């Protein structure tokens, strides 16, 4: 896994130096033969500096009872401990259980990290170096890195012999989900989403990059995500019942990312059922918000379908590579877990496609309902206009007659001394002729 292998001639076994002020200095540190340089000149980490920086590195090991959190990679080992000791699960040459003021977020007691104190005050360690060499899985480690810099990626690539293609995918934040096998590890790119409902990037893709060696796992992500913490909590709950290997850690990360889609899909199901029931029974005044609800729900469904993408194919490809004949590939027992994830992914994808069809039908029904209501309104308007047209057809000729006999000119029947024969016959004919076609 490491350059030169564990225990090789290029491993630096010297304890890490500390600054005179009691803090930690990263000058002169080496990680399995690779220099860990500070990010600034003469950089010294003291107890009252750098507390505003986030904890970007989290280190878990089966040989420790707690997880180490640090702001920089050089802060992970304790006083008197080398990186080799850290990754092999050895407590190092620390003097008792002294506190480490340089790192407030990490575990500070050697007895608390690498073992427990029994009744007579002695410390028991879960594994010795000989046990580690006989069974590497007893000291399986996991290093989670948030937003690695280019310098940190170059250092980690050199130490762990990471292929340049893998480093490029991580640094360029490759969005395509995939599984790749290399000489000494396999690489998984799996996408989740931002779960913070108050974040402007809610539901946007969040890439998780997992590099799995036989002895441990490296994971990288460029935004805060609860998945590593959830997996560590799960390990703590199940550690007495399962064998925590590097393959199991990678499975647990993939499984936690997959499970994060469950509550969101469940909420979409409730919304889809509500829309499907109300779209045809709401009255005019209650339908003003329906189109917005349909549009918002369809947007969520399409976004999740895009995120689901080819997840099932990636997990299926990883499960197919599970065998006992190639040391790099996942073990066959992990294939059972991966098959379960694949079933969940297929089911969720089918549910989302079903919800999309329901929403499409509801959208069509809503538009059809609006069209029917508009047709009814147009029919009512046409009925009123037809009545007004009939009334106008009667009144307009009468206005013509009254206008003719009201002018100061000679009109028919004006010379008649008695009666209104001419006038009555003209009015009768003007009223009867236009109304004849209406019968």
Topology at a glance:
Elements lengths: L23 E2 L4 E2 L2 E2 L8 E2 L11 E5 L6 E3 L12 H6 L21 H5 L1 E2 L5 E2 L4 H6 L6 E6 L3 H11 L3 H8 L6 E4 L4 E8 L11 E8 L3 E6 L5 H12 L7 H14 L1 H18 L11 H19 L2 H10 L11 H74 L15 H15 L4
Parallel strand pairs: 9-13
Antiparallel strand pairs: 1-4, 2-3, 5-6, 5-9, 7-8, 10-11, 11-12, 12-13
Helix pairs in contact: 6-7, 7-11, 8-9, 8-11, 9-11, 10-11, 11-12
Cα(first) to Cα(last) distance is: 100 Å
Helix content: 40-55%
The biggest beta sheet reads: 7 strands, mixed
Number of helices: 12
The low-pLDDT segments are 1-30, 32-49, 94-132
Please tally the β strands and state the result: 13
User: Please, what is the average pLDDT?
Assistant: 75
Element string (H = helix, E = strand): EEEEEEHHEEHEHHEEEEHHHHHHH
- Oligomeric status: single chain
Overall geometry comes to rod-shaped
Sheet with most strands: strand arrangement: 6-5-9-13-12-11-10
Pfam family, one: CorA
Protein name: Cora-domain-containing protein
Membrane topology: Multi-pass membrane protein
Family: Belongs to the CorA metal ion transporter (MIT) (TC 1.A.35) family.
